[in-house]
Amino acid sequence: MANTLLEKIWQSHCVKHLGDTEDLIYFDMHLLHEINTPQAFDSLRADKRIVRRPDLTVATEDHNTPTRSIEALQGDVLRRQQVDLLRHNCSEFGIPLYKLGEPGQGITHVIAPEQGLVLPGTTLVCCDSHTTTHGALALLAFGIGTSQVEHVLATQTLRFQKFKSMRITVENSLRANISAKDLALYIIRHIGTGGGIGYVIEYTGNAIHSLSMEARMTLCNMSVEAGASAGIIGVDDVTIDYLRKIFVSNGRPPLEEEIERWRTFVSNSDAIFDKEIVIDAAVVNENVTWGTNPSQNICFNERIPDFTDYSDTSQQQAAKRALEYMKLKPGQSLQDILIDKVFIGSCTNGRIEDLRVVAGILEGRSVYLNVDMVIVPGSIKVRDQAIREGLDKIFKEAGADFRSLPGCSMCCGLNEDSMREGQRSVSTSNRNFEGRQGTGAMTHIASPAVAAASAIMGRIACPSDL
Ligand SMILES: CC(C)[C@H](C(=O)O)[C@@H](O)C(=O)O
Ligand code: SF4
């Protein structure tokens, strides 16, 4: 059998073939948050249906919640209504919910792996495009829309067209200080924001298997920014060690049979993929976006391009518009760009490892006077761990604002942390679309290390500039 990991998972979760290209797929886990779910519950109610597997459904509050105090939610009528609706729906349908500030709460894609809700060889869906994150643990995880949410709530299944498979092999090793975020930006620039459409990307190669679990999550998270339906990485010792720790912290070490089963969730050595891409990790540098989609990124030894540098007309138009929106001139260097805000957080880079990198750079240094640096932990667990390690003190001493409540925050600007028109950020999140962090606000996506160095310098900066 020459099965890819994708095929193994797909076949074991196929309830029924619905013709040549479509199958009915069973889902082991369904995650929910306050956005995109109210209509699904309304339809369920109207159809007099129940949630078929509330035990396989978990909700959290993350997108529009405040990060300074729980009380702030009370004073915010619109956002409180959205959160209250989720609370009401979860209580009516018997779905476990992590409320703002409760142990276990945080960004959907941060809390599920850290709580052991995500296992190799399984399937997972969520009303959110960055569900691709979870594929780092060798499962098939992807985002779905509101009507699909209703279908999964009612049946725990969905009909799906088969995905195509793409293998991205990243050979050699990433250089010191080059992160999974830099690699993700490099890949998106290489294959384009539409390069992954219709595919599940499996990442493999020495550079991938040398990454920590958290770094793998960053990479899989960004797969959707290349248009892919999912990202996935086969099980190896890093996966097993990560899961073992989670299981132990949950009070039950994994059984040897379980571990042996997890180990089978890899593509067979002779598996055939629909598309193959090979990348040399050694050529990846620190990358920062200059434009308004994640593929419009450069490294520090490049200059802001002119739109005429692109051969494709639609890319030319996109670049022209991006240069205008971002108020940048061709030929400028990244280091010339002054910034107002730095955001550390999100489901891409809001994990403990990311906060450690930031603390390592901030320690003994100060955030530039004009810069507002906001650090939002991805979950309560991440926050508590950061405090245990004394990272909060380092952040405070440097003049950064370490928030006490986790959530998406400035990543999508749905809470009070959105930017004002004309403000410019370096952000560790994943999207730099026009208005993403506030109407008329400009976003430069980068790694935690670049974001921290930029906060200190008051302009986009590389850690080696310090
Ligand atoms: C609000 C939600 C549906 C959305 C998504 O699907 O990704 C958000 O998380 C985002 O990052 O833009
Ligand atoms: S942190 Fe950002 S990208 Fe992730 S789920 Fe929240 S809004 Fe979406």
From TrEMBL:
Cofactor names from the entry are:
[4Fe-4S] cluster
Top-level taxon of origin = Bacteria
Q: What is its EC number?
A: 4.2.1.33
Which of UniProt's keywords are assigned here? 4Fe-4S, Amino-acid biosynthesis, Branched-chain amino acid biosynthesis, Iron, Iron-sulfur, Leucine biosynthesis, Lyase, Metal-binding
Broad EC category: lyase
Pathway(s) it belongs to: Amino-acid biosynthesis; L-leucine biosynthesis; L-leucine from 3-methyl-2-oxobutanoate: step 2/4
Q: What's the short name of a Pfam family annotated to this entry?
A: Aconitase
UniProt lists the family membership as follows:
Belongs to the aconitase/IPM isomerase family.
The UniProt function text for this chain reads: Catalyzes the isomerization between 2-isopropylmalate and 3-isopropylmalate, via the formation of 2-isopropylmaleate.
NCBIfam families, per the entry: leuC, PRK05478.1, PRK12466.1
| Record-given protein name | 3-isopropylmalate dehydratase large subunit
Q: Which organism is it from?
A: Fodinisporobacter ferrooxydans
Species lineage: Bacteria, Bacillati, Bacillota, Bacilli, Bacillales
Gene name of the record: leuC
